[in-house]
Design a protein that fits this description.
This protein is of the alpha+beta class. 41% of the residues lie in helices and 15% in strands.
Protein backbone atom coordinates (compact mmCIF):
# COMPACT_ATOMS: atom_id res chain seq x y z
CA UNK A 1 0.00 0.00 0.00
CA UNK A 2 0.89 3.61 -0.10
CA UNK A 3 -0.24 7.04 0.81
CA UNK A 4 -0.47 9.20 -2.26
CA UNK A 5 2.98 10.55 -1.42
CA UNK A 6 4.69 7.15 -1.64
CA UNK A 7 5.38 4.54 -4.27
CA UNK A 8 3.41 1.39 -3.51
CA UNK A 9 5.37 -1.82 -3.29
CA UNK A 10 2.31 -3.70 -4.46
CA UNK A 11 1.82 -1.66 -7.61
CA UNK A 12 5.48 -0.79 -8.26
CA UNK A 13 4.71 2.78 -9.41
CA UNK A 14 3.37 6.08 -8.17
CA UNK A 15 -0.38 6.40 -8.28
CA UNK A 16 -2.17 9.77 -8.15
CA UNK A 17 -1.19 13.28 -7.15
CA UNK A 18 0.12 13.61 -3.54
CA UNK A 19 -2.51 14.07 -0.83
CA UNK A 20 -1.58 13.07 2.70
CA UNK A 21 -5.10 12.45 3.99
CA UNK A 22 -5.69 9.27 1.98
CA UNK A 23 -4.14 5.89 1.23
CA UNK A 24 -4.46 4.02 -2.03
CA UNK A 25 -4.25 0.32 -2.81
CA UNK A 26 -4.39 -1.50 -6.13
CA UNK A 27 -7.05 -4.17 -5.79
CA UNK A 28 -9.69 -6.35 -7.39
CA UNK A 29 -13.40 -6.06 -6.67
CA UNK A 30 -15.44 -9.28 -6.39
CA UNK A 31 -18.13 -11.15 -4.50
CA UNK A 32 -17.05 -14.15 -2.39
CA UNK A 33 -19.82 -16.49 -1.21
CA UNK A 34 -22.28 -13.62 -1.23
CA UNK A 35 -19.95 -11.10 0.43
CA UNK A 36 -18.86 -8.02 -1.55
CA UNK A 37 -15.12 -7.48 -1.10
CA UNK A 38 -12.02 -5.68 -2.28
CA UNK A 39 -8.85 -7.79 -2.30
CA UNK A 40 -5.36 -6.46 -2.57
CA UNK A 41 -1.97 -5.89 -0.96
CA UNK A 42 -0.75 -3.28 1.52
CA UNK A 43 1.87 -2.58 4.17
CA UNK A 44 0.90 -4.16 7.46
CA UNK A 45 1.43 -0.81 9.22
CA UNK A 46 -1.10 0.90 6.98
CA UNK A 47 -3.75 -1.74 7.47
CA UNK A 48 -3.21 -1.44 11.23
CA UNK A 49 -3.55 2.34 11.04
CA UNK A 50 -6.87 2.42 9.21
CA UNK A 51 -8.61 -0.37 11.15
CA UNK A 52 -9.65 -1.05 14.74
CA UNK A 53 -10.78 -4.07 16.74
CA UNK A 54 -14.33 -3.92 18.06
CA UNK A 55 -13.79 -5.86 21.30
CA UNK A 56 -16.91 -7.50 22.68
CA UNK A 57 -17.64 -6.53 26.31
CA UNK A 58 -20.87 -7.95 27.73
CA UNK A 59 -21.26 -4.85 29.93
CA UNK A 60 -19.78 -1.90 28.06
CA UNK A 61 -19.82 -3.05 24.41
CA UNK A 62 -22.43 -5.82 23.95
CA UNK A 63 -22.55 -5.20 20.17
CA UNK A 64 -18.82 -5.83 19.76
CA UNK A 65 -17.62 -8.61 17.47
CA UNK A 66 -14.05 -9.36 18.47
CA UNK A 67 -12.67 -11.54 21.27
CA UNK A 68 -10.38 -9.99 23.87
CA UNK A 69 -6.76 -9.54 22.79
CA UNK A 70 -4.07 -11.98 23.90
CA UNK A 71 -1.02 -9.72 24.23
CA UNK A 72 1.35 -12.68 24.02
CA UNK A 73 -0.33 -13.91 20.85
CA UNK A 74 -0.09 -10.43 19.31
CA UNK A 75 3.57 -10.15 20.35
CA UNK A 76 4.38 -13.53 18.79
CA UNK A 77 2.70 -12.48 15.55
CA UNK A 78 4.65 -9.22 15.51
CA UNK A 79 7.99 -10.95 16.08
CA UNK A 80 7.22 -13.48 13.38
CA UNK A 81 6.64 -10.92 10.64
CA UNK A 82 9.33 -8.52 11.86
CA UNK A 83 12.19 -11.00 11.95
CA UNK A 84 11.48 -13.25 8.97
CA UNK A 85 12.69 -12.74 5.44
CA UNK A 86 10.50 -15.60 4.26
CA UNK A 87 7.12 -16.21 5.83
CA UNK A 88 3.42 -16.20 5.08
CA UNK A 89 0.12 -15.11 6.60
CA UNK A 90 -3.42 -15.68 5.39
CA UNK A 91 -5.01 -12.43 4.30
CA UNK A 92 -6.21 -9.96 6.91
CA UNK A 93 -10.00 -9.71 6.77
CA UNK A 94 -11.49 -6.24 7.42
CA UNK A 95 -14.93 -4.69 7.09
CA UNK A 96 -15.75 -1.17 5.91
CA UNK A 97 -18.60 -0.17 8.22
CA UNK A 98 -18.69 3.41 6.90
CA UNK A 99 -19.13 3.48 3.13
CA UNK A 100 -17.87 7.06 2.87
CA UNK A 101 -14.32 6.16 3.94
CA UNK A 102 -13.67 3.96 0.88
CA UNK A 103 -13.77 4.80 -2.83
CA UNK A 104 -13.11 2.38 -5.67
CA UNK A 105 -11.97 3.70 -9.07
CA UNK A 106 -11.82 1.19 -11.96
CA UNK A 107 -8.73 1.39 -14.14
CA UNK A 108 -10.85 1.22 -17.32
CA UNK A 109 -14.30 0.52 -18.71
CA UNK A 110 -12.97 -2.76 -20.06
CA UNK A 111 -11.74 -3.84 -16.60
CA UNK A 112 -14.40 -2.50 -14.19
CA UNK A 113 -13.39 -4.77 -11.29
CA UNK A 114 -9.69 -3.91 -11.37
CA UNK A 115 -8.78 -0.55 -9.90
CA UNK A 116 -7.59 1.65 -7.07
CA UNK A 117 -9.12 1.60 -3.60
CA UNK A 118 -8.80 4.94 -1.81
CA UNK A 119 -9.11 5.12 1.98
CA UNK A 120 -10.00 8.47 3.57
CA UNK A 121 -7.59 8.42 6.51
CA UNK A 122 -8.55 11.90 7.63
CA UNK A 123 -12.23 10.93 7.96
CA UNK A 124 -11.31 7.75 9.85
CA UNK A 125 -9.16 9.66 12.34
CA UNK A 126 -11.89 12.24 12.97
CA UNK A 127 -14.64 9.68 13.47
CA UNK A 128 -15.67 8.65 16.99
CA UNK A 129 -16.80 5.21 15.77
CA UNK A 130 -15.00 2.35 14.10
CA UNK A 131 -15.03 2.95 10.35
CA UNK A 132 -13.07 -0.16 9.35
CA UNK A 133 -13.29 -3.08 11.74
CA UNK A 134 -11.15 -6.19 12.03
CA UNK A 135 -13.03 -9.43 11.44
CA UNK A 136 -9.96 -11.66 11.31
CA UNK A 137 -6.36 -10.58 11.91
CA UNK A 138 -6.52 -8.44 15.05
CA UNK A 139 -3.50 -10.14 16.65
CA UNK A 140 -1.46 -9.74 13.45
CA UNK A 141 -2.30 -6.04 13.21
CA UNK A 142 -2.17 -5.00 16.87
CA UNK A 143 1.47 -3.91 17.09
CA UNK A 144 1.98 -3.38 13.37
CA UNK A 145 1.43 0.41 13.26
CA UNK A 146 4.37 1.06 15.63
CA UNK A 147 2.35 3.33 17.93
CA UNK A 148 3.25 1.42 21.08
CA UNK A 149 6.61 1.86 22.74
CA UNK A 150 9.13 -0.79 21.79
CA UNK A 151 7.46 -1.70 18.51
CA UNK A 152 8.54 -0.26 15.18
CA UNK A 153 6.23 -0.05 12.18
CA UNK A 154 6.02 -3.14 10.00
CA UNK A 155 6.33 -1.85 6.45
CA UNK A 156 6.03 -5.26 4.86
CA UNK A 157 3.41 -6.13 2.28
CA UNK A 158 0.63 -8.52 3.26
CA UNK A 159 -2.61 -9.44 1.55
CA UNK A 160 -5.97 -8.12 2.69
CA UNK A 161 -9.65 -8.58 2.03
CA UNK A 162 -11.99 -5.68 2.78
CA UNK A 163 -15.70 -6.49 2.95
CA UNK A 164 -18.32 -3.79 2.50
CA UNK A 165 -22.09 -3.47 2.67
CA UNK A 166 -22.40 -5.89 5.61
CA UNK A 167 -24.89 -5.53 8.44
CA UNK A 168 -23.38 -5.80 11.93
CA UNK A 169 -25.07 -9.13 12.56
CA UNK A 170 -23.60 -10.45 9.28
CA UNK A 171 -20.15 -9.31 10.36
CA UNK A 172 -20.56 -11.17 13.66
CA UNK A 173 -21.71 -14.26 11.79
CA UNK A 174 -18.64 -14.23 9.54
CA UNK A 175 -16.37 -13.83 12.57
CA UNK A 176 -18.06 -16.85 14.17
CA UNK A 177 -17.83 -18.94 11.00
CA UNK A 178 -14.13 -18.20 10.45
CA UNK A 179 -13.11 -18.99 14.03
CA UNK A 180 -15.46 -21.90 14.61
CA UNK A 181 -14.69 -23.70 11.38
CA UNK A 182 -10.99 -23.03 10.89
CA UNK A 183 -9.26 -22.57 14.27
CA UNK A 184 -9.81 -23.20 17.92
CA UNK A 185 -10.76 -20.23 20.06
CA UNK A 186 -12.53 -19.40 23.31
CA UNK A 187 -15.64 -21.57 23.31
CA UNK A 188 -17.58 -19.25 25.62
CA UNK A 189 -17.09 -16.44 23.10
CA UNK A 190 -18.48 -18.67 20.36
CA UNK A 191 -21.47 -19.59 22.53
CA UNK A 192 -22.08 -15.92 23.28
CA UNK A 193 -22.09 -15.16 19.56
CA UNK A 194 -24.48 -18.06 18.92
CA UNK A 195 -26.88 -16.51 21.44
CA UNK A 196 -26.68 -13.17 19.62
CA UNK A 197 -27.23 -14.74 16.20
CA UNK A 198 -30.11 -17.05 17.16
CA UNK A 199 -33.69 -15.85 17.80
CA UNK A 200 -34.81 -16.79 21.32
CA UNK A 201 -37.49 -19.29 20.29
CA UNK A 202 -35.08 -21.02 17.94
CA UNK A 203 -32.40 -21.15 20.65
CA UNK A 204 -34.90 -22.70 23.07
CA UNK A 205 -35.73 -25.37 20.53
CA UNK A 206 -32.24 -26.15 19.21
CA UNK A 207 -30.00 -25.50 22.24
CA UNK A 208 -32.11 -25.34 25.41
CA UNK A 209 -29.03 -25.83 27.60
CA UNK A 210 -27.41 -22.72 26.08
CA UNK A 211 -30.66 -20.75 26.43
CA UNK A 212 -30.81 -21.62 30.14
CA UNK A 213 -27.10 -20.92 30.68
CA UNK A 214 -27.29 -17.42 29.16
CA UNK A 215 -30.45 -16.69 31.18
CA UNK A 216 -28.57 -17.63 34.34
CA UNK A 217 -25.88 -15.17 33.26
CA UNK A 218 -28.15 -12.25 32.37
CA UNK A 219 -31.18 -12.49 34.67
CA UNK A 220 -30.74 -10.11 37.62
CA UNK A 221 -32.72 -12.55 39.79
CA UNK A 222 -30.25 -15.33 39.06
CA UNK A 223 -27.58 -16.07 41.70
CA UNK A 224 -25.09 -16.33 38.81
CA UNK A 225 -25.89 -12.86 37.45
CA UNK A 226 -22.60 -11.09 36.64
CA UNK A 227 -20.57 -14.23 37.36
CA UNK A 228 -20.56 -15.77 33.88
CA UNK A 229 -17.89 -15.05 31.27
CA UNK A 230 -19.43 -14.89 27.80
CA UNK A 231 -16.23 -14.15 25.89
CA UNK A 232 -14.51 -10.95 24.79
CA UNK A 233 -13.19 -8.67 27.52
CA UNK A 234 -13.44 -10.33 30.91
CA UNK A 235 -15.33 -8.39 33.57
CA UNK A 236 -14.31 -8.60 37.22
CA UNK A 237 -16.07 -11.48 38.95
CA UNK A 238 -17.14 -13.26 35.74
CA UNK A 239 -15.23 -16.46 36.47
CA UNK A 240 -17.72 -19.09 35.26
CA UNK A 241 -17.21 -19.82 31.52
CA UNK A 242 -20.46 -19.82 29.58
CA UNK A 243 -19.41 -23.07 27.89
CA UNK A 244 -18.79 -24.70 31.30
CA UNK A 245 -22.18 -23.55 32.56
CA UNK A 246 -23.87 -24.76 29.38
CA UNK A 247 -22.26 -28.18 29.90
CA UNK A 248 -23.43 -28.22 33.53
CA UNK A 249 -27.03 -27.50 32.48
CA UNK A 250 -26.75 -30.22 29.84
CA UNK A 251 -25.63 -32.69 32.53
CA UNK A 252 -28.57 -31.72 34.73
CA UNK A 253 -31.15 -32.07 31.96
CA UNK A 254 -29.76 -35.48 30.98
CA UNK A 255 -29.94 -36.76 34.57
CA UNK A 256 -33.29 -35.39 35.67
CA UNK A 257 -36.43 -37.49 35.13
CA UNK A 258 -38.83 -34.61 35.88
CA UNK A 259 -37.38 -31.49 34.21
CA UNK A 260 -37.98 -32.91 30.69
CA UNK A 261 -41.70 -33.08 31.54
CA UNK A 262 -41.79 -29.28 31.63
CA UNK A 263 -42.55 -28.39 28.04
CA UNK A 264 -40.66 -25.09 27.79
CA UNK A 265 -37.00 -24.29 28.62
CA UNK A 266 -38.31 -21.12 30.26
CA UNK A 267 -40.04 -23.24 32.90
CA UNK A 268 -36.96 -25.43 33.26
CA UNK A 269 -34.87 -22.30 33.70
CA UNK A 270 -37.02 -20.97 36.54
CA UNK A 271 -36.77 -24.25 38.43
CA UNK A 272 -32.99 -24.40 37.93
CA UNK A 273 -32.67 -20.77 39.04
CA UNK A 274 -34.62 -21.61 42.20
CA UNK A 275 -32.29 -24.52 42.87
CA UNK A 276 -29.21 -22.31 42.54
CA UNK A 277 -30.75 -19.77 44.90
CA UNK A 278 -31.12 -22.64 47.37
CA UNK A 279 -27.47 -23.61 46.82
CA UNK A 280 -26.41 -20.02 47.48
CA UNK A 281 -28.18 -20.10 50.85
CA UNK A 282 -26.75 -23.55 51.54
CA UNK A 283 -23.14 -22.53 50.78
CA UNK A 284 -23.07 -18.68 51.00
CA UNK A 285 -19.29 -18.45 51.41
CA UNK A 286 -18.80 -19.87 47.92
CA UNK A 287 -20.44 -16.68 46.62
CA UNK A 288 -18.65 -14.21 48.89
CA UNK A 289 -15.21 -15.86 48.46
CA UNK A 290 -15.51 -17.92 45.23
CA UNK A 291 -11.75 -18.41 44.78
CA UNK A 292 -11.55 -20.23 48.10
CA UNK A 293 -14.19 -22.77 47.11
CA UNK A 294 -14.66 -25.25 44.23
CA UNK A 295 -18.43 -25.03 44.16
CA UNK A 296 -18.61 -22.49 41.33
CA UNK A 297 -15.82 -23.86 39.16
CA UNK A 298 -14.75 -26.99 37.32
CA UNK A 299 -15.83 -30.30 38.79
CA UNK A 300 -17.46 -28.54 41.72
CA UNK A 301 -19.87 -26.62 39.48
CA UNK A 302 -20.73 -29.70 37.45
CA UNK A 303 -21.27 -31.70 40.65
CA UNK A 304 -23.74 -29.08 41.89
CA UNK A 305 -25.79 -29.54 38.71
CA UNK A 306 -25.65 -33.34 39.01
CA UNK A 307 -26.89 -32.99 42.60
CA UNK A 308 -29.49 -30.52 41.40
CA UNK A 309 -31.05 -33.09 39.07
CA UNK A 310 -31.85 -35.28 42.06
CA UNK A 311 -33.01 -32.46 44.33
CA UNK A 312 -35.25 -30.97 41.64
CA UNK A 313 -36.77 -34.36 40.89
CA UNK A 314 -37.68 -34.79 44.56
CA UNK A 315 -39.42 -31.43 44.89
CA UNK A 316 -41.20 -31.62 41.53
CA UNK A 317 -42.60 -35.04 42.45
CA UNK A 318 -44.08 -33.36 45.55
CA UNK A 319 -45.54 -30.54 43.41
CA UNK A 320 -42.98 -28.11 44.81
CA UNK A 321 -40.32 -25.99 43.14
CA UNK A 322 -39.41 -23.11 45.48
CA UNK A 323 -35.88 -22.48 46.83
CA UNK A 324 -36.91 -23.09 50.46
CA UNK A 325 -38.12 -26.57 49.62
CA UNK A 326 -34.89 -27.43 47.81
CA UNK A 327 -32.79 -25.91 50.58
CA UNK A 328 -34.46 -28.19 53.11
CA UNK A 329 -33.27 -31.21 51.11
CA UNK A 330 -29.73 -29.85 50.74
CA UNK A 331 -29.54 -29.20 54.48
CA UNK A 332 -30.84 -32.67 55.27
CA UNK A 333 -27.48 -34.20 54.39
CA UNK A 334 -23.92 -33.94 55.66
CA UNK A 335 -22.26 -30.56 56.17
CA UNK A 336 -19.61 -30.86 53.46
CA UNK A 337 -16.50 -28.71 53.17
CA UNK A 338 -16.51 -27.27 49.61
CA UNK A 339 -13.27 -25.35 50.18
CA UNK A 340 -10.34 -25.69 47.79
CA UNK A 341 -8.60 -27.88 50.35
CA UNK A 342 -11.77 -29.47 51.69
CA UNK A 343 -13.62 -32.76 51.23
CA UNK A 344 -13.43 -32.76 47.44
CA UNK A 345 -9.82 -31.72 46.90
CA UNK A 346 -8.29 -33.42 43.84
CA UNK A 347 -11.55 -34.21 42.06
CA UNK A 348 -11.57 -33.04 38.44
CA UNK A 349 -13.49 -33.35 35.20
CA UNK A 350 -16.82 -35.04 34.61
CA UNK A 351 -15.80 -38.20 36.45
CA UNK A 352 -14.78 -36.16 39.50
CA UNK A 353 -18.06 -34.27 39.38
CA UNK A 354 -19.99 -37.54 39.32
CA UNK A 355 -18.07 -38.86 42.33
CA UNK A 356 -18.74 -35.67 44.31
CA UNK A 357 -22.44 -35.80 43.46
CA UNK A 358 -22.69 -39.44 44.52
CA UNK A 359 -21.05 -38.70 47.88
CA UNK A 360 -23.39 -35.78 48.55
CA UNK A 361 -26.55 -37.46 47.27
CA UNK A 362 -26.06 -40.51 49.49
CA UNK A 363 -26.52 -38.30 52.54
CA UNK A 364 -29.64 -36.48 51.33
CA UNK A 365 -33.07 -37.51 52.56
CA UNK A 366 -35.29 -38.77 49.74
CA UNK A 367 -39.09 -38.42 49.46
CA UNK A 368 -41.59 -39.78 47.00
CA UNK A 369 -44.36 -37.71 45.51
CA UNK A 370 -46.72 -37.11 42.58
CA UNK A 371 -46.38 -36.16 38.91
CA UNK A 372 -45.36 -32.61 37.89
CA UNK A 373 -47.57 -32.15 34.83
CA UNK A 374 -49.93 -29.68 36.50
CA UNK A 375 -47.04 -27.49 37.72
CA UNK A 376 -46.23 -26.14 34.27
CA UNK A 377 -48.68 -23.23 34.10
CA UNK A 378 -47.92 -22.16 37.67
CA UNK A 379 -44.18 -22.10 37.03
CA UNK A 380 -44.57 -20.24 33.74
CA UNK A 381 -46.59 -17.53 35.46
CA UNK A 382 -43.80 -16.83 37.95
CA UNK A 383 -41.55 -13.84 37.21
Amino acid sequence: MTTKKRTTKAAGKKLLAPTKQSMEFPCVRAKVLGVSVYRGFADLADLAEISKADIYDQTNNPRGTQRDLSVQHARDAYEYVKNRDLGFWPEVFLCARKAEVVTFTPISMEQPDLGILSIDVDLIEKSNVICISRIDGNHRLHFGDGRQNGYVKINKVVSFCLAYGLKRIEEIQLFRDINDNQKRMNTSHLDGITVKLTPEEELKRKEPELFIAQKLSRDSQSPLYGKVYEGGKKAAGSDIPLRGLKTAVEYMLSRSTQLPHLDDPEAQYKVIRNFLNAVKKWQPKAWTSPKDYILLRGAGLWAVFFIGAQVIDQVLLRKQYQPAEMLAILKSGKDWDWGSKGDFKGYSGRSGALEISKLVAKKLHADDGLSTTDLFKQIMSEK
